[in-house]
């Protein structure tokens, strides 16, 4: 290979951890001669693909960025006044640099391990407080996927809540006609399978009765109009229907908030709080509600508790608060959400404070008012008398306006019936109004336009009776960090509390925390990608188009399928979209009564939760003692439910980390009984280039791009869960209201390509590695796991391996044998923090175990440090067994040891401070201090507080 060919492959060596010599050493430890031998022993022969993947690359990082510049230049970023839920915004540079583009924030995992996640937990608590304050509703979650799915979550929550108590028949949900079109679209998708009738109408004339369990309106609405909904809300409450308000947080700085109007739920997107439009995302949706619903809210809620020392400590409330843990009883499947973007929005509010936000909102309102006045003077008729940022006018000739506007690189929103919408945003300058007005003037044959700004007089575009008088964001955190120095330090102080991939490996089984390379991520901030509105005309996003087309083709090829939809915003959303495709397929063949989905007991909770959301009945099937699907039990159930079998959901390799030998037989059984096979792609990191779901016999799979394809986890999102399908299911992929106008769309997200801007990460990942690099990455993921297994099995029992005693890309360490010594899996997880490590996946899929997935990106030295830590922990456990350590007062039970504990004047433990804090030599060189001692979950759940407490509370608990 010449020097230039070597250069093209240089990213392999940057992405894959072990080098040649280390590979040999590792194979020696495993007891095998070559990587090929390991793969042959691990991946069943009958599912191996020999063909090379048909993807681009490999190319060097520099070449990639140069090529991408050319693709980026095909995107034409116009000045956007389209609005409809997406607005240009100014990301404060201090947040862009220190949060959005900072691996200390974006490589974090979901904060399940609270002691090493206090930074992002605090930021997410700020997010909840901000949402709660602005909406005037007492409880908010820490983000959902987008505005459309948040509206659907609200509808489903209210339906399930009422249905549980009353078992309602013929349930109806009223949707005001002036809700954003994409939100209505997603609501329709979600309502159909659960047999909720969506009734669209005009709220001012709607007739409601007891069959309605809920209503939704947009405030301000899709016309930009501010309506007084109070009489309507009273009408809804009079028939016992609950009220959802889709709203805009910036507008709420000036408008009476939904909670004060009587709403039960408020939802929306926090995008315009400093998060770029990114052609549709990622953005954090919010969800706020009344206390009554606190136990049924979808998504994650951060709550305040105390640690073992009684200090204030944050953690995910109510044992993680995730609905999907309840499997088929769950009312939502949300797992990955939009934590990174929620943090950005929260920091934007921390930086601006209530006064700053109001200034931004008032500037926007003033500009909209000036624009309205001039347009009225020109003779245009405005439809919305009251408005915040959007002016909607009637024009005689939309085509001319559009032509003139686009010639000036301006986009408006064009309603279908001859109206034009102009949404002002934070980036709009005074001079921009002149450009807008010139377009309208020219359309009337005039060459001049002028604009007057009334800075002092109060604008009359917001009605007095809907003007906000209540205060908000009074908490010190929103009133302190307003200078750049303070903001930078606040961001850093939170970042320092959190363990991220830039500190050490995070080997979370089923989560694939691999390298998220800088080259993959840098273009996400390029304006050609970040400033694109998702509803801009197609000719303006040719660059995105090229990327979408190529990526769809590559993902189809990698999975062995015919078509791909990039719309779902998370793995669970992909499950839902894939199951809907199966449902539509059966219905299309006049077999709508195929309504049963088989799911093995070992499946992730989102599988049954998604199946129920898609309107299926779930039958759980058994696993055998080796952790494999019990094929006979599966066959028995498939045959028993033959007439109604819709399909099977199966994870491969299994959630037990094994390539089950019987997978082809399993697929055949389902097909023979008329069902379709859904493959959960969470474990694709063990498949890429070696085998493929389509080749194995599945009909559809989702991919977690935030696992296998290098999108960072962002502390609990963003994610992307595209689905790949065979020819049979291709006609039933999700569409979008902007694409399939007037037709049924099955949309699962607000934007046609989901969180489009982060598709760039996966696009780069594939192109940098190329076919051979991708295959090698998979081989090394399997090598790294088997190497760690080989080192650890001397000390720990490993649950489940394949027939040749190898594991796939992850393996489960059984900690249950130590229970008799009083040691739980949780103690080991917490003790790992003292060694500077994040715990592996805890108690999934088997309680009392940890599941380790090192990924291909970790070098041997890091794998060795992690193994050394676990081996030393084993020694610490043995010390309890042989009596040299106390059963209750030991390094495991008291873990993690915070700096405060270690440096306290009093030390009463039978072990030393250095045993506690520096158990191995390497720890001294790079000590990571957990910010708190072990968090007390029960205390927090008993005293549920999910917003920043008043400042006195800090004093009471001694922080
Ligand atoms: C096996 C499996 N399936 C589905 C999911 C859900 O994916 P997401 O969190 O992207 O919704 C996960 C998440 O960890 C998983 O491990």
Describe this structure in words.
The chain has 959 residues and is an alpha/beta fold. Helices cover 38% and strands 12% of the residues. The chain is built from 32 helices and 26 strands. A 7-stranded mixed beta sheet has the order 2-8-7-6-5-3-4, sandwiched between helices. The chain has a 7-stranded mixed beta sheet with strand order 15-21-20-19-18-16-17, with helices on both faces. The protein is globular. 59% of the residues are buried. Residues 954-959 have low confidence and may be disordered. Residues 335-336, 510-511, 570-572, 604, 606, 651, 655, 680, 682, 704, 719, 721 line the site of pyridoxal-5'-phosphate (PLP). Residues 335-336, 510-511, 570-572, 604, 606, 651, 655, 680, 682, 704, 719, 721 line the site of pyridoxal-5'-phosphate.
Keywords:
single chain, 959 residues, alpha/beta, seven-stranded mixed β-sheet, disordered C terminus, binds pyridoxal-5'-phosphate
Concise structural overview:
The protein is α/β, with parallel strands linked by helices. It is built from 32 helices and 26 strands.
| Shape estimate | globular
Structural class by SSE content: alpha/beta
Q: Which stretches are low in confidence, meaning pLDDT under 50 for 5 or more residues running?
A: 954-959
End-to-end C-alpha gap: 61 Å
Mean pLDDT: 95
- Physical arrangement of strands within the biggest beta sheet: 2-8-7-6-5-3-4
Helix content: 25-40%
Number of strands: 26
Strand content: 5-15%
Radius of gyration: 28 Å
* Main beta-sheet strand count, sense and barrel state: 7 strands, mixed
> How many helices in DSSP terms?
32
Q: List ligands, each type once.
A: pyridoxal-5'-phosphate
